[in-house]
TrEMBL record:
Natural source organism: Triangularia verruculosa
UniProt keyword annotations, A-Z: Oxidoreductase
Gene Ontology terms for molecular function: glyoxylate reductase (NADPH) activity; hydroxypyruvate reductase [NAD(P)H] activity; NAD binding
Segments forming domain D-isomer specific 2-hydroxyacid dehydrogenase NAD-binding: 223-369
Compositionally skewed regions (Polar residues) per UniProt: 1-55
UniProt name for this protein: D-mandelate dehydrogenase
Amino acid sequence: MAEPTNTPMPASTPVPASTPRSSSPLQRYSIPSLTPNATTATIPLWPSTTSSPDTASRKPQRPIVLHIGDPIKYNFDTYAEFSAAFEVIRPPTPERERSEFIRALKEKIWGDFSAISRPFWGTGGEMGRWDAELIDLLPPSVKIFASAGAGFDWADTKLLGERGIMYCNSGLAAAEAVADFSVAMIISTFRHLPWCMNAATLPYLSSSGSTTVDAKKAFRECHARATAASHNPRGHTLGLIGFGNIGQQIAAKMGSSAFGMKIAYYDVVRKPMEVEKELNATFHDTLGGLMKVSDCVVLCTPASADGRPIITAETLRYLRPGTRFVNIARGSLMDEEALADALDSGVVGAAALDVHMDEPRVSERLVKMATGLEFDERGYHPGRVMLTCHNAGGTVETHVGFEELSMRNILAVVRDGKEAVTPVNLHWLRGKTT
């Protein structure tokens, strides 16, 4: 899911292999409606509560929720229910900067709050990574941290669990948007869309002096030669690394009659037979085994437990020449230099990356492959790579869902004493076993 500039992107603290993963596509889940239930016009919302000396001494009859980030924008009916159940404190932006945030936690100016809510990716990350420095300062009263986004490599979910704090993400809300974006990237690798698009817009670049490439020649060469490099996805094997909500939705879309791809997958935990049967998916128990049979590989798994990439020069050797590659998971999962080498050698024929190893910086080698318009000395065609800006999960509907799930998780756990909708660290909670 797209993360904004104020969202920390540090070394991963991801879900380990033993964490339960989704066993069915999003549409199987019975979750609250993610449709906005009010307009986005300006209406009275709860105030941006500025901390005051008497905050800690107050004894509210309702549990306190610490809301970090912007006010609710979409789900006003749910917020009415939420604010009736809890006293919501929303620190202003200056108090969310790390040094001020730490001071506030030490001085307990927000009292003994029971939950933390971060309903948007665009704000609420000003304090930086949730590591021991922050987590150790949380009051014992905290039961749950419910946040927007599918990824959670900015928070130490293991340490939160060991403190007895449940962490909930909002991956369900982003799954469809990410899967849709993945479809576009998969098609791009089969049809070489960057090449076609760059060649079509070249006349405008030429007239502005941005390039000296012959625009008419580039257009004609793309028109004549892209056909020899392009294929229909139908009948080809799509290899999915990770088969949770997003992987299964990609399988449902690309394996349907619309595209007719064969579906194969690798995951640390094999999915139930009924899921495989419904999606006509074949399980491979090794990453190498999956990559050997795939015509296009999509990386859609959480960040690795040790923070190391799983797509390296070694694993790329399993691919057949010309295989396509897509990454909509995490940039840390892929060695981009190894991918560039594989593109240079022809082992990878085309690639599409929505996430990058050193965001917001993008690999210069891959940029050249994305924007190039001339054949290289070995005859490899230009525009072999599609690059986007961590956009896959970024839709209005996704943000509506993030906001809704953040509140629903807290209502379920704190108000109702029930199970959370989207917990990710149950195995680390006190008394839990892996």
